[in-house]
Amino acid sequence: MAPLPVTGANPLRDPADRRLPRIAGPSGLVIFGVTGDLSRKKLMPAVYDLANRGLLPPGFSLVGFARRDWEHEDFAQVVHDAVKEHARTPFREEVWQQLLQGMRFVQGTFDDDEAFERLRGTIEELDKAQGTGGNFAFYLSVPPRSFPVVIQQLKKHGLADQTSGSWRRAVIEKPFGHDLRSAEQLNKVVHEVFAPDQVFRIDHYLGKETVQNILALRFANTMFEPIWNRSFVDHVQITMAEDIGIGGRAGYYDGIGAARDVIQNHLLQLLALTAMEEPASFDADALAAEKTKVLGAVKLPKDLGRSTVRGQYAAGWQGGEKVIGYLEEEGIDKQSKTDTYAAIKLGIDNRRWAGVPFYLRTGKRLGRRVTEIAVVFQRAPHSPFDTSATEELGQNAIVIRVQPDEGVTVRFGSKVPGTSMEIRDVSMDFAYGESFTESSPEAYERLILDVLLGDSNLFPRTEEVELSWEILDPIEQYWDKHGRPAQYPSGTWGPTEADEMLARDGRSWRRP
Amino acid sequence: MKIDLTDTTSSKINKALVRGRRAIGTPAVGMVLTLVIVTDEENAYDALKAAGDASREHPSRLLVVIRRVSRTLRDRTSSRLDAEVRVGADAGTGETVVLRLYGEVADHAQSVVLPLLLPDAPVVVWWPVNAPLDPAQDPLGALAQRRVTDTYTSEQPVRELSARAQAYTPGDTDLSWTRITPWRSMLAAALDQVTCEVRAVEVEGEESNPSCELLAMWLADRLDVPVKRSQSAGPGLTAVRMETSCGPIALDRADGRLATLSIHGQPERAVALKRRDTAELIAEELRRLDPDDTYASALRFGVEKLNAPPAPPTPAAAAKKPLAVPVPKEDAAK
C-alpha cells in the first residue's frame, strides 16, 4: 500500500517498478523474552517467513535475550524448531543458512548490567560481521512490569542511542497500561528513552489483512460509503469471541479482565477504523489524525448500569468438552470480580454517527472463536409487500469477518422461488481464501517488516492509547463500585443480561 | 468432477461448467481472472500443472488451448472441438477447460475462447512455448490484458528478445523477466547499503539464457553505465559484479540456490536466491496485471547495445531507435 522506500538516490529503485518488494534496509531485531510463547509461535516464524519471501536485507540479524543458559547454537536450534513447526511458508535450507549467520544469543536477566554490556558488544560485533549498520529494533516481549527496567537498561548502556543516520526502535506489546494513569506513566518511561516516532505499539489485529481491508472497502469503493452513516445504518456490532478459557494466564488475567484486555485496544481500534472519516492520504499522520478524531468523539451512555454488561464464565460444556468455570480456574480468587465477558454500548458524537449505537462485546469461552464487525442497516421505510411476505426478512447487513474465514458478507432479502411472494434473507459472500491467496501473510510478518521499514501506519499512537483509556476508565470505575459480574455457562453467547441490554433498545445480537 | 465433451461448442462447454458447479454444491466462486494457456500437446501437462499450482494463489478459470496437428488432408478439411471440463477437486481452486482443436477451427481459437471468458475479470494469455512474434496482434493475445511469453524456451533467445522489443505493447511480459525479480531486488538492496556511484557492471550466466541479457539491460538502463555480458556454465545466472566508486560489489551464485553478496569493506553475506519453478513465476506474473513499464524500458534498451565494443548492429535494431539512453563508451567495462 505504501510506496517503496527510497533511500538515498539508489538508481535501481523506481516507484514504477512494482515487482521489487518493499525490502527492509540493513538492520537487526533484538527480542527480549525470547523463550516465551509469543516469540516461538509468532515472532520467529514471522522472521523466517519474511526471509523466505526475500523481504529481509542480506545480513539481517536476530538476537535473543533471555535468562536461559544457552549458547548461540542452542538458540538457533530453538528458532529452527519453532520455524519448522509454526512457519507459514515451506522450510528451505538456503533461507535458513542465510538467517543462521546472523543469529546470536545473549544470556542474562533484565537487571544484569553485564548482560546488557554483552548485548552491546554483540550488536557492535554484528555491525562488523553482518553489516547491520547500527540499525536495531528492540522487541519487548516481556511482562508489563519489566518494561521500565528493560527500557532503562537500554538507555543506561547506550543501546537506545542513534548515531550518524542509524536508528534504534522499541516495539512494545499490549497491555499499554491498565488505566489512563498507568498508560501515561508507561508512555513517559518509554518516551524518555525513545523518540515517539521510534516507538511501535503492536496491536496485531491491525496487521491483519481483513482489518486493512476495512479501509479499502470503505474508501476505494463508491457503493458503501454513501450509506455508511446515520441515515442508513441502524447500529453496529463489533464482536471478538474466544472459545478458550484463560488457560495458564491466571496471573496476567485476574484483575485485568476482558474489557481491558480486548476492548481497550482491539475493539476500539476496529471501531475507529469502521467509523472514522476518510483520511487525506494513507500515510501514518493522516490516518492517526482521523482515528484520534473519532475516538475523541466517542460518547459514553449516561446510565452505565443499563448499557454495559460484564460476565464470568461458569462451568459448562464447550464444543462437546466439559470445562470448569472462571472462579474454579487454578490461581483465581474465588471472590474475583474480574470480567471474562464484557459488552458495552457507545455512541459517537458527530454528524455522521449521532444516534447510532456501537455495541462492542468480547468474551472467553463463548460459542466459537470469531471476530467480526457487523454494520446493520435500517429496515426499508416502506414496503410494498404485505407483512406475511416479509415475515422472514431481517435487516440488511454488511459483515466484515476479521477472523477466521476472513471475508465480507452482505445480507439482503431475496424472493423465494415459488408462486407466492415470500422474501427471505440471503447472503452474498466474499471470502479472502477464495479470491486471493491461501497464503496471506501473518499479521506479525507485516508488522515486523513495517517496524524495520519505519512505517507506522498500522501502529496505534500514544494519543489513541490514552483516548481509549479515557473511554474505558469510567466503565471500569463504575464496575468496581457496583455489583458483580453475571455468570454465563461456558459455550454460550454470554450472559442473558447482555441480550436484555439490546432488547431494551429493540435489537438483538447477531449470532456470529 | 470431470466432464468429457467431444465434437462440441463453447455454449455446450458453458452448460457443462454450470452443471459441474451445481453438482459439487458451490454455485458461485470467487475466481479473479481467466488464464488462457496456448500450447501444444507436448507441453500441455507441465503448463497446466504449473498454472494449477499458481491458481492456489489466484483462483482462476484455466482455458488450455491445444492445437492438434492435422497430418492428412481429410483431417485438415474437417474441423472438430473436444473439451474436457474439470471443476472441484480436479481443478485446483478454480475451473479448468482443456480445449483440443482439430482442423480448421484451430485457426479460429479466439471464437472458442471468447464465450468462455469470465465476465469482467481480466484475461491473461500465456504461451509456454512458441509464442507469436507479436503477441498483442495475435487473435488470442488481443483478448487479453496481459500476454506472457517465455523467451527462454525459444531456439534463439537473444534474437527473440530483439523481436519482443520491436513488438512490445503495454501488457506484454516475459517469464525470463519474472525469473530475475529476486536478483533485481537483491541488487537494489545492495545499493541501498552504500552511497557510491556505479561505474561498470558485468553480468555472468548461461549462454542461452535471456534472463542474463534482460538483467544486463535493466542495469544498463537504470544505471547508465556500460554493462558487459559474459558467459559461464550456469545454472542460469551465476554472478553480477559492479565496479563502484567505493570498491567492487558482487552477487555470486554458483549453485543456483545460495548466493554470496560481497560489498567492499563489508563482510560477505549469504543470501537465499533459489531458482524458482514455473508455478511461482506464473503466480508472480498474475499478481499485477497493469503494464510493466520497467520491463518495457529494459527491453527497449536493446540487446545489441550490451557488451561494448558492439557487434555491427542488426538491421532490425538499426530501424528501431528506443529510449534516449547514451550508448555505453567502449572499453569502459574493462
Features:
heterodimer; A: 512 residues; alpha/beta; Dihydrodipicolinate Reductase, domain 2; six-stranded parallel β-sheet; B: 334 residues; six-stranded mixed β-sheet; 11 helices; 14 strands
Explain what the structure shows.
The complex is a heterodimer of chains A (512) and B (334). Chain A has helices spanning 37-52, 72-86, 93-100, 113-130, 147-156, 180-193, 209-219, 250-253, 257-275, 284-296, 304-307, 432-435, 443-453, 462-481, 496-504; strands at residues 28-32, 61-66, 103-107, 136-140, 168-173, 199-202, 233-241, 298-299, 308-314, 316-318, 321-323, 341-348, 358-363, 370-377, 397-403, 407-415, 423-431, 486-489. Chain A is α/β, with parallel strands linked by helices and 512 residues long. Chain A folds into two domains: 28-173, Rossmann fold (3-Layer(aba) Sandwich), CATH 3.40.50.720; 207-504, Dihydrodipicolinate Reductase, domain 2 (2-Layer Sandwich), CATH 3.30.360. In chain A, the strands form three sheets. In chain A, strands 7, 8, 9, 12, 13, 14, 15, 16, 17 and 18 form a ten-stranded mixed sheet that branches. In chain A, strands 3-2-1-4-5-6 form a six-stranded parallel sheet, sandwiched between helices. A two-stranded antiparallel ribbon of chain A has the order 10-11. In chain A, a hairpin with a 2-residue loop joins β10 (316-318) and β11 (321-323). The relative contact order of chain A is 0.13. Chain B has 334 residues and is an alpha/beta fold. Helix content of chain B is 31%, strand content 25%. Chain B has helices at 10-24, 41-54, 73-77, 109-113, 157-167, 175-178, 181-192, 210-223, 278-287, 293-301, 315-319, and strands at 2-5, 33-39, 60-67, 79-87, 95-103, 123-126, 146-149, 172-174, 198-205, 227-231, 237-244, 247-252, 258-263, 269-272. In chain B, a hairpin with a 2-residue loop joins β11 (237-244) and β12 (247-252). The interface between A and B is large, with 42 and 47 residues.
